[in-house]
Design brief:
Blueprint lengths: L1 H47 L3 H13 L6 E8 L4 E8 L9 E3 H4 L3 H8 L3 E4 L3 H8 L10 E9 L2 E10 L8 H70 L5 H15 L4 E7 L5 E8 L9 E2 L4 H8 L3 E3 L1 H9 L5 H10 L2 E9 L2 E10 L8 H20 L3 H48 L9 H17 L5 E8 L2 H8 L1 H16 L7 E6 L2 E7 L4 H16 L2 E3 L2 E3 L3 E7 L7 H17 L5 E3 L2 H23 L3 E9 L4 E10 L1 E2 L3 E2 L2 H10 L3 H18 L10 E4 L8 H14 L6 E6 H21 L2 E7 L5 H7 L4 E4 L1 H5 L5 H17 L2 E5 L4 H9 L4 E3 L7 E3 L1 H5 L1
Parallel strand pairs: 18-19, 21-24, 24-25, 25-26, 26-27, 27-28, 28-29
Antiparallel strand pairs: 1-2, 1-6, 2-3, 4-5, 5-6, 7-8, 7-12, 8-9, 10-11, 11-12, 13-15, 13-18, 14-15, 16-17, 20-21, 20-29, 20-30, 22-23
């Protein structure tokens, strides 16, 4: 029993020891829950807070739930302006009066250290010296007891800092507080960006609303102005009608004038005064006043009406103006006193007919709140003229009727003109809108296919790049499509058929892509496709395969069936792309690789292609420089007459040894020249050097008398180029029969139908012609019958197999047999072994070229040029 009791006491003791641990674990979970709630609150702020000022204060409150944050600020690094923007600053000792501070002023401080290093700071005042020594930070302002500072980052870039600090020595921060602050800072940048975006959007909406409201107010003002103009036109028209019907009661006529005038301005009291025949008295044919029943005829005096008659101008007279006129002696004092007592506002305008004043029309109000304005005065001045005319018309009905008709017609014409002007203006506005829409469309679309053009495609691609940088999981790809045989179609069927072909290609490609993908034409026969948000790389390959397949189908153009094809380069958007030009460049490089591999296929871009293209470009630039500075090496190798061991002629060719790339292979050498469009320049370089060589050896009988150069068929495609060759030979002073031109059979295969006239022209000029590499191409025998070659060079691959290949030996014998009938001679090239030479001698081959006969001998071009 005692033993059981001891065990029970130990168990309770152990439980008591576990209580602090459980309490600590509970506190830890509660703190984690508070952190989670804080992150949720920060996330909610992004959707509930519309202004940054409220956002920062809300974040301040959230952080204050975890630690003492009486002193708190948030600063952002504005890199473009090189400023530190203190977006939020609360401190019990330091007052931040300047919101933005130049970077250099505080870059050595705590904030600058966080922005420079991207590291957090836990500062304690008792460790101040060690802290400054380890970080090099200078402390500004009031020194805090403790400080926690963490960086604000967008991705890996530090964009700001968030700092809490305390001056109270009883308050201490812990590493858990630092961890909370670091954790919260990771989510604050996203929240700030979202609030900034929404704030910008709302500001834009408010500005647009303000602009629309202003436009609406302007329209309303214009409508009111138009309504006033229409009211004025209507009033004038009614006055004109009244004047045309003067047979009725004159009191009704004047009352109607008063009603019309009252619709234009406030006219509760109105009278018309006229001069009698003696022009010394005033009569009042119409008088309507709320205080007086009628006005009696009176002699002219110093009243308001007489003042208007004297000045001949419309007048606006209020109490201040009355005093001024009374003091100037223009008005009777009693008249001024009565007006001041009644607080009158009085408008009067002379009635002028044919330049002579016949009376006055006046309106007036009583009381301090009804006052006339200068606009009312201008309106009365305008209307009074028409009223005066209407009154004058009563003296002559015919004149009144004639004037009424004239006025009516004038008003009608003016109204018609306004209507026409309005209609024309509306039509112009509609036409301008259509033109603007068309201009916008034309500026972003290809005029032939109506597809988006380079500008629109580039803009859309820039958006895709931005999307890729923000959302790396989204997949985009660019397909660069180049068509085969487009130039052939243009040259054979004409540009109209070429345009029809491009339109059909655009339709076919459109059927191979999705609705949200973008197809554009860059120009010529180049099309590009932006594949937007696809699921898998295989989808891109499927699209490319469909495009290649549909383009390979026959086209019916001008009633003829034509075939084309497509080579496609594919570049996937990656995070390292910074512009549309980079993507198009890489897709173009992949397309070029597809064409090189044999067309009718697609190739995915990789970085090795870019390196290879850069190397080829560099090699081409070096080739141009070497050609310009004549850095090539020239060699001479003779063709030997085996019967006499004498040289028939010497073949000159060039080689290039680059200081960086070393010896450039002959095939690559020719390829660089062809791709850079320098083949003709290289041929002319060799021709001029051969002419200079012959001239320099003319007096030396031991030197070669005939030199051969390799000539590209590009010289034979235009008669002007053939003429240029002959002119160079003539200008050099040598005879054409001293030169030998060698043409490669493979080149002749491509353009044989164009070059026969040119070859005949060279033959007539006296140049010896050689068909080089015979047997390496197709339809070789046709050249032996059609072209006037003097020599045929058997391709070195046939000679290389001798004497073991009896088949090739018999082929050479057959060509020699044909040569006896067609009057050309056979040369075996590439004779590099004694056995090959013996085999050729046995079949009576008289001419040969190769290392076993004579090695190629280098020439010093610089010395020759000197």
């Amino acid at each position: 029993m005692s033993s059981d009791s001891t065990q029970l006491e130990l168990s309770e003791e152990e439980l008591r020891e576990l209580i602090p641990q459980l309490q600590q674990l509970t506190d830890k979970y509660k703190r984690a829950e508070r952190v989670q709630k804080a992150l949720f609150d920060i996330s909610e702020l992004a959707s509930s807070v519309s202004h940054l000022n409220r956002l920062y204060s809300a974040i301040h409150e959230i952080i204050a739930d975890f630690m003492n944050a009486d002193n708190f600020f948030v600063a952002f690094y504005e890199r473009d302006a090189n400023l530190i923007d203190f977006a939020y600053f609360v401190d019990e000792f330091d007052e931040q009066t300047v919101k933005q501070v130049p970077v250099e002023q505080i870059m050595d401080g705590i904030t600058g250290h966080i922005l420079r290093t991207g590291n957090h700071i836990f500062f304690k005042k008792e460790e101040e010296k060690d802290f400054q020594k380890s970080t090099g930070v200078q402390l500004f302002g009031s020194q805090p007891h403790q400080l926690l500072g963490v960086p604000l980052k967008r991705g890996t870039q530090v964009i700001g800092a968030m700092v809490v600090q305390t001056y109270d020595e009883d308050v201490s921060y812990t590493h858990e507080d630092l961890e909370v602050l670091l954790f919260v800072s990771q989510h604050i940048v996203t929240t700030v960006d979202r609030v900034k975006s929404r704030e910008l959007t709302e500001r834009t909406i408010r500005e647009r609303t303000r602009q629309l409201r202003k436009i609406n107010d302007d329209l309303q003002e214009e409508i009111l102005e138009r309504q006033k103009v229409e009211s004025l036109q209507q009033a004038l028209f009614e006055i004109s009608e009244l004047a045309a019907n003067l047979e009725g009661d004159m009191s009704i006529f004047y009352s109607s004038l008063h009603d019309i005038l009252a619709r234009l301005i406030s006219a509760p009291n109105c009278f018309i005064a006229t001069l009698d025949d003696s022009r010394e008295n005033l009569e009042f044919p119409y008088f309507s006043d709320s205080q007086d029943d009628k006005a009696q005829k009176r002699p002219l005096g110093l009243g308001l009406t007489e003042f208007v008659l004297r000045t001949g101008q419309a007048e606006l007279i209020n109490p201040p103006r009355v005093l001024e006129l009374a003091e100037a002696g223009e008005l009777d004092v009693s008249v001024a006193q009565n007006m001041l007592n009644s607080a009158n506002s009085w408008l009067g305008s002379p009635l002028v007919v044919d330049g002579e004043i016949s009376g006055v029309i006046a309106v007036q109000t009583y009381g301090k709140h009804a006052k006339y304005t200068a606009r009312d005065l201008e309106l009365l001045r305008f209307v009074s003229h028409h009223i005066a005319v209407a009154m004058e018309r009563k003296r002559s009905t015919e004149a009144i009727q004639r004037y009424n008709v004239e006025l009516e017609e004038r008003v009608k014409e003016r109204t018609t003109e306004l209507d026409k002007a309005n209609q024309f203006l509306k039509q112009q506005i509609e036409e301008r809108k259509e033109i603007e829409l068309k201009l916008i469309h034309d500026a972003h679309h290809d005029s032939l296919t109506d597809l988006p053009n380079r500008a629109m495609f580039t803009s859309r691609l820039e958006l895709a790049i931005a999307n890729k940088q923000r959302y790396p999981e989204n997949l985009f790809a660019v397909l660069f499509i180049d068509l085969d045989r487009f130039k052939v179609i243009n040259d054979t069927l004409g540009h109209f058929a070429g345009d029809e072909f491009l339109v059909e290609v655009a339709k076919r490609i459109s059927l191979c892509i999705r609705g949200h993908d973008l197809l554009a034409r860059l120009g010529g026969d180049e099309f590009v496709v932006l594949l937007d948000n696809f699921e898998d790389v295989a989808d891109v390959e499927d699209v490319a395969s469909r495009i290649i397949e549909c383009i390979s189908e026959p086209f019916v153009l001008e009633g003829k069936e034509m075939y084309s094809g497509a080579s496609i380069g594919i570049a996937h958007l990656e995070g390292y792309y910074r512009g549309a030009d980079e993507v198009l460049r890489d897709a173009d490089a992949a397309m070029y690789q597809a064409k090189t591999l044999g067309r009718g296929r697609f190739v995915m871009f990789d970085k090795s292609m870019r390196d290879r293209l850069l190397e080829e470009l560099e090699l081409e630039n070096e080739f141009r420089r070497a050609l310009r500075e004549e850095e090539f090496e020239c060699y001479l190798q003779p063709v030997i007459d085996l019967r006499t061991d004498e040289a028939l002629y010497h073949e000159m060719y060039v080689r290039w040894e680059h200081p960086t790339y070393g010896k450039v292979a002959r095939e690559q050498f020719r390829q660089v020249a062809e791709q850079g469009g320098l083949t003709l320049d290289l041929d002319l370089f060799q021709l001029r050097k051969a002419c200079d060589l012959l001239n320099s050896w003319r007096s030396d009988s031991d030197k070669p008398s005939h030199i051969a150069v390799n000539v590209s068929i590009n010289h034979l495609l235009q008669s002007s180029l053939v003429n240029k060759i002959i002119r160079i030979i003539d200008d050099s002073g040598i005879s054409a029969n001293e030169l030998v031109f060698e043409f490669d059979e493979n080149d002749l295969n491509r353009r044989s139908q164009y070059i026969l006239p040119a070859i005949k022209k060279l033959k007539r000029a006296g140049i010896t012609l050689v068909l080089d590499n015979f047997g390496s191409g197709l339809a070789s025998l046709s050249y032996l019958f059609a072209y006037p070659f003097d020599f045929i060079k058997i391709d070195h691959r046939f000679v290389k197999s001798l004497p073991r290949s009896q088949r090739n030996l018999k082929l050479i014998q057959s060509v020699m047999l044909i040569s006896e009938h067609l009057r050309f001679k056979v040369i075996a090239e590439g004779v590099d072994a004694r056995a090959q030479l013996e085999a050729l001698t046995e079949i009576d081959c008289n001419y040969a070229q190769g290392k076993v006969l004579s090695e190629a001998r280098p020439l010093d071009i610089k010395q020759l040029a000197g």
